[in-house]
Amino acid sequence: MTQPEYDVVIVGAGPTGLACGIELKRRGLRVVLLDKGCVVNSLYNYPTNMVFFTTPELLEIGNIPMTSLNEKPGRTEALKYYRRVAAHYELDIRQYQHVDAVEGEDGHFVTHARDINHEPVTYSSRKVILSTGFYDLPNLLGVPGEHLPKVIHYYKEPHPYYNQDVLVVGAKNSAAIAALELWWSGARVTMVHRGEGLHRFIKYWILPNISNRIKNGEIPAYFNSTIRAITPGTVELNTPEGPITLKNDYVFAMTGYRPDFAFLAKCGVNLNPDTQRPELDSDTLESARKGLFLAGVIVAGVHTSEIFIENGRFHGNQIAEAIASQLKG
User: Fold this and answer.
1) Residue range 19-24: mean pLDDT, rounded
2) What does DSSP say about strands 250-253 and 165-169: parallel, antiparallel, or unpaired?
3) pLDDT for res 63
């Protein structure tokens, strides 16, 4: 029987995946990380000017300090930090490799991936860790016209939307920040949200600003309202006053994201039908499929707000301890 090339394959090179790789390397194990995008791909796709809601030390992994010019770090500082950590520990990271399947069994797994040219690549390992995050699949609106190119689920920066009619869907942090930045940059911004008002957990330095823009009529907001349809030049809304049609160039659907539950199920992870929480050992984070471990936000199922970088980073040590113990045994 062929000996595994690696002790562990890690699917996902976000902060939690990196933390897993670091802890496993510290224990002398052979590790490779695969990611369908770049290192910390989700963070790269965050808005250009995003500021974290947390302090630098709570984003640290591998006992390497993170520094920031301000009290809270920004996206660019985080990207630089995680690149530095990956280089310091000389992690073997294969970027732009999309994992399709994990076959085999504990001690003899085969992970099938495709590289950037869609050429097949396979990796054999004794254990596998899935740390795939939740930022890759947006929650869809489920309305006619959502497939149009003008509908955007990932807000990056405001400049291209100067002098355009823009609708922002949602009322949480991402929606509020997008609406403000677009408005500051000269877009004509309208917000729509199915709830009664702005979300109560909007960052404290954002809430007064967006509230005042709405109060002053600078950013019209339709609450208790939903999108009925999207056309190339308009959006149709259902509002408490009845249906209305707005002139529109772009729709930013800031409706949140979800883990790829279909991929997890394909990998043999048992999911609770209601919460999508995976069946696993809470001490080791090993799934019901022996030898397959889960790390990061996917442990929480649909309750993605339960796990962030701040607490998901500790999964690395938890899993590495379990794997090292199993392999030594």
Assistant:
1) 98
2) parallel
3) 96
Amino acid at 131: S
Distance CA 247, CA 97 (A): 41
- Amino acid sitting at position 268: G
Distances (CA, A) of 243 to 123, 140, 146, 226, 246: 54, 21, 18, 10, 10
Q: 328: part of which helix (H) or strand (E)?
A: helix 315-328
- Is residue 111 helix, strand or coil? strand
Question: Using CA atoms, how far apart are residues 32 and 114, in angstroms rounded to an integer?
Answer: 15
Eight-state DSSP code of residue 29: -
The model's confidence at residue 204, banded by pLDDT at 50, 70 and 90, is confident
Task: Give the distance from CA 159 to its chain's centroid.
Answer: 24
- Residues contacting 201, CB < 8 A, separation 6+: 172, 173
- Does the structure show a pLDDT above 70 at 91? yes
What are the chain's domains? 6-136+257-328 (3.50.50.60), 140-253 (3.50.50.60)
CA torsion 193→198→204→208, rounded to 10°? 110
pLDDT over threshold 50, residue 2: no
